[in-house]
Structures are given as structure tokens and as C-alpha cells.
Amino acid sequence: MNFWHNIKGPNFSLAPMEDVTDTSFREIVLKTMQDGKLNLLFSEFTSVEGMTHPVGHEKVKHRLRINDSEKELLKQKNVKLIAQIWGKDPEKYYKTAQYIAQETDFDGIDINMGCPVKNVVKNGCCSALIAQPELAKEIILATKEATNLPLSVKTRIGFKEVVTESWISHLLGMPIDALTIHGRIQKQMSDGLADWNEIAKGAQLRNELAPQIKIIGNGDVESYADGLQKIAQHGLDGVMIGRGIFKNPWFFNPDKETISTEEKLALLKEHTRVFEATWGRDKNFAILRRFFKIYTNEFKGASALRNELMSTSNAEEVYQALEQFSVNSEQ
């Protein structure tokens, strides 16, 4: 069964993000979500070049790691997990897609045709594919040929300029199950506001050309309610959340209107525990520090605690900082 066609009602997903959506953070999001409010999770960006390289494979495959504890939560919460891959060689997409289907427990594959980072684009990958529609087609067909896993694409409304009609129409002619449209061109990076009128144009093109393909909007979704409003207003099947999760780790629990200091710090401690248990010394602890700001805000002493946490170099130091903050708060 193709999960894209079995999601009831509007779907919500957490965007693939570099050094963010690893198995440890995905587990935290699953623990904070309200049942039925999150449908799809994505891996970090995974390079097909690295995955098919004799040496690089071992350095890259950690991006596709799924902890047993995450697997259990995915099953309990009925959330699907999708591997996002990127590159420019169709043959390497084919081999990577086969690996994902045969060696991992991902439910689907997503092709990155939207990342705007300059050094990636310079190599002809991700959003650079918007300017190479025939290569994009070859990549999709090669990935589709490799596996029966559901296939989706994440892209933007243009490269140097808006080309929604021609580019989205091209993708809608491909054998994909879903298309996520970010409402900016590559040149904008994350600047300015996402153009939801262009995303709506993509949905209208879908209605005319390929009614079976799901259209997901992405860009500046501020809250769960905002997501529902954008879905209804623009004729979409769902929305994808990116930076919004950094403003509120309980984004997918919209009924939780107030979050206590104790809850925030307990979640920070749990995230630290899961990260440490997952990666140990295999990943730089500094990666975890970027998350501390999402847990340490809007309470007395938050700024000082955040500064203290940013100087930590291991889980034990985080626990000590939290314990000392608790002691000081009680005095």
C-alpha cells in the first residue's frame, strides 16, 4: 500500500534538515507530538555520491540510521519515515535507492531538488536541477526503476527566476507520488517571504495534469493552525515544517498551549540522553548545542542557562548545568 494515498485528511511533515533530523531528534519530535498531528518524517540529506563510494559509504550511511526506539515510536504513532537523497548521477541514485529499499526500514524515498546551498548548487545538484529538467527526469526515472518504495520530490519555484508553470508541469509528468514545493527560488535562499500564490499555482497545475500526485506546501508555516489555513486556502494536500520546529518543539502538539520550564528542560535532558546514546563519540557534540536555544527561552534565567549550556562538551556537563540551574531556582 502506498502511504501517500492512505493519509486521511491534511498531512503534516517535518522537513529534512542537515545536522537536525537525525534519528535522535526525530525521536524527540515523536515523543512530543499529538497523535495524528504529524504524518511524515524525513532523514537528513544523504548524498548518493557518498553512498556509492567505496570509502565514502561508511562516512555517509549514518544519515540513514534509525534507532530501534524510533522504530517503535513510528509504529505506535503511525508516522512514515522517508529517506531524502541528493546528487546528480542517475546511476548512483539507482544504486542508493536499491540500498535503501533492501538494507533499511525507510517507508519511502524523496529526491532533493530544492536545497539552495551554494557549494551544492555549484556542483549541479539539488536546486540546480531546476535548470536541468532532462537530467532531473533521468534521476527520477532511475530512482523509480530501482525500487517500489513510494517516491516524492522536494523542490522550489525556480532557480534564478520563478518558473513555476514550466518546472512544476515537468515534474508532474514524472512517476512520482508527491511533490513538495518551497515557495522561494534558489537565489533567495531563506530570505524574504515564501510565495504561497506560486505554491497554489502548483496545486492548480496538479489538478489539471496529474490529480493523483499529492502537493505539499513549504515555507514560513508559523503554527499548526497556520498550516491548516494554508492547506485550505491554497488547495493543498499538506504542509512541511522546517524552521518552525526551532521556535516550538511541541509544534505537532497544537492543543498544548502552555509549556512549563520543567517540561522544556526535561525535554532538553532527554534529547541529550538520546543523542549521547545514539552517537557517543561518533558525532561532534557541538551539533547538539544548536538545539539548546529551542529549550531555553521565555523563563527566568533562560539566557544565563543557555550560555552555560553552550560551553558544554558532553552529556554529563549538560546534566550538571541543568542540576545547578534547578538548585539555584529553588533558592
From TrEMBL:
Enzyme class: oxidoreductase
Transmembrane segments: none
InterPro entries for the chain: Aldolase_TIM (IPR013785), DUS-like_FMN-bd (IPR035587), DUS_fam (IPR001269), tRNA-dHydroUridine_Synthase_C (IPR024036)
Keyword Oxidoreductase (UniProt): yes
EC numbers on record: 1.3.1.-
Keywords from the UniProt entry: Flavoprotein, FMN, NADP, Oxidoreductase, RNA-binding, tRNA processing, tRNA-binding
Domain DUS-like FMN-binding as annotated: residue spans: 14-325
Reactions this protein catalyses: a 5,6-dihydrouridine in tRNA + NAD(+) = a uridine in tRNA + NADH + H(+); a 5,6-dihydrouridine in tRNA + NADP(+) = a uridine in tRNA + NADPH + H(+)
Cofactor(s), by name: FMN
Function: Catalyzes the synthesis of 5,6-dihydrouridine (D), a modified base found in the D-loop of most tRNAs, via the reduction of the C5-C6 double bond in target uridines.
Family according to the record: Belongs to the dus family.
Xref: PANTHER family: TRNA-DIHYDROURIDINE(47) SYNTHASE [NAD(P)(+)]-LIKE
Protein name: tRNA-dihydrouridine synthase
Species: Paralabilibaculum antarcticum
